[in-house]
Amino acid sequence: MKTALLLASLLLATAPAYAAPSDIDARVARVLKDTPLIDGHNDWAETLVGRAGDARWTLDLTTLDPAKYDTDITRLRKGGVGGQFWSVYVDANLPGPQQVEATFEQIGLMQQIFARYPTVFEAATTAADVRRIQAKGRIASLLGVEGGGQIDGRFAVLRAYRQLGASYLTLTHSRTIAWADSATDDPKHGGLTKFGEAVVHELNRLGMLVDLSHVNEATMRAALRVSSAPVIFSHSSARALCDHPRNVSDAVLKLLAANGGIVMVNFAPSYVSEQRRLWEAAHNGEIASYNAPPFGGLYIGQPDKAKAALAAWELAHPKPAVTLTMVADHIDHIAKVAGIDHVGIGSDFDGLSELPQGLDGVETYPALLAELARRGWSDRDLAKLAGGNIMRVMAGAERAALALKGEPAATATIAQLDGT
Q1: Which one is catalytic: 197, 332, 341, 348?
Q2: CA angle, 334 as apex, 45 and 128 as ends, to 5°?
Q3: Is the confidence at residue 312, as pLDDT, over 60?
Q4: Is 304 a catalytic residue?
Q5: What is the rounded distance in angstroms from the CA atom of residue 306 to the CA atom of residue 298?
Q6: 236, β-bridge pairs
Q7: Phi, psi of 360 (to 5 degrees)
Q8: Share of the chain above pLDDT 90, in %
């Protein structure tokens, strides 16, 4: 008996000291109380338009159906959210003037939401605004214009967005535009044109963040070369772990560290898992091979046969699972390559058709931080990830704008700078 007790004591003494789940949860709660989480990208406005239609102007946003929405006020509170960059996205295929009109409407929707719930949301444009609003227990609400096409080639439109509260401009969305190459379209410019470089400079002058999510690597490198302020990737992940062009390579991560910027990690399954990315490409290929009107497909014009064939393929090729731990892997990788000061969270909630297991909505941020805590992240590092890093980047952009205060506003056109 004495031998058994001695052996048990030795085993306990040499076992690794893992914190109990309750201890981890308490740590995360303390971190989020002191440093409320700031997410770089949420598409709530787009989803409200698509799912609620005209009811979006009056819909009670306190508690929404989680099968339809990733975001509502109750879940934002549960998730420890103290700041949010709300995307004002519009379709990149629209003509320029229609993109501008739709952007103004999206801005108006978010402003109306802030006005309807003044004890929950308050508009912010600066780091000082964020701190002041968080101190009141409200969610500091910033706007992100998700595509350079939304300025329609006009600096006056960009300045109007800034005056209405926009805090960043994503240089492209899914399409290559007249002055910048997209990650998900054929390149035309080798990165940024002269007008594109002028857009980056004007963003610096205005104190708006340059957002490099959605652009290709040449555009990333050009913007990092031109920008006098830290840049952001509002919702991207690590290309070393998932080779999607929307993600950020290790080489660019090192340039980003020198710039002082930040990658805010995206939850999109095809940006998180390489297996999932390859599966989705194969799945899309199968769809096209079965029925691609008007001339292609094994079962062209026979949708029932095409549907049955796809179902058989899916049964033989199960969709790879994507999980919270995989998202944590991306955060870990970026922290190791660029440094702990250069990573944040940019979920893309309400912009995705599917989410990783364990990250079902805005209430789940604490679970992600808990996973990192279990991996050995300190409270200080968790606080940087949650909101400290993006606050530092915002302050850096404000300092850059102050240094450019004496410069006149940009007025050139694409034709004048690029000769087109």
Answers
A1: 348
A2: 55
A3: yes
A4: no
A5: 8
A6: 265
A7: -85, -10
A8: 94
Residue 6, pLDDT score: 40
Q: Does the annotation mark 39 as catalytic?
A: no
List the catalytic residue out of 46, 152, 173, 202: 173
Classify the phi-psi angles of 199: left when phi > 0, otherwise alpha if psi is within -120 to 50, otherwise beta: alpha
Of the candidates 236, 182, 261, which has an alpha carbon nearest to the alpha carbon of residue 346? 236
pLDDT digits (tens, 9 = 90+) for 215-263: 999 999 999 999 999 999 999 999 999 999 999 999 999 999 999 999 9
| Residue with tokens 């190791």, as numbered in its chain | 336
Output the six-digit token pair for 315: 């049964």
Q: Which residues of 162-177 are buried (b: 16+ CB within 10 A; e: fewer)?
A: bebbbbbbbbbbbbbb
Provide the pLDDT for residue 420: 72
Q: Active site residue: 41, 330, 333, 342, which one?
A: 41
CA distance 324 to 326: 5
**Residue 41 annotated in active site:** yes
Helix (H, G, I), strand (E, B) or coil at 181: coil
Determine the pLDDT at residue 208.
98
Q: Given the structure tokens 């769809």, which residue do they identify?
A: 287
The active-site residue, picked from 235, 244, 333, 342, is: 235
Report the Cα 269 to chain-centroid distance in Å.
13
What SS3 state is found at 193?
Answer: coil
Q: Annotated catalytic, 244? A: no
Catalytic residue of the set 70, 72, 146, 217: 146
* Active-site residue flag, 342: no
Predicted model pTM: 0.93
Task: Using pLDDT thresholds of 50, 70 and 90, give the confidence band for residue 287.
Answer: very high
Active-site residue, selected from the candidate residues 189, 201, 214, 244: 214
Beta-carbon count within 10 A of 117 CB? 16
- 3 CB-side CA count, 13 A: 0
8 has pLDDT over 70: no
Integer Cα distance of 198 and 96 in angstroms? 19
pLDDT, the chain, mean? 95
Q: Is the Cβ–Cβ distance between 82 and 124 less than 8 Å?
A: no
CA–CA gap between residue 417 and residue 420 (Å, rounded)? 8
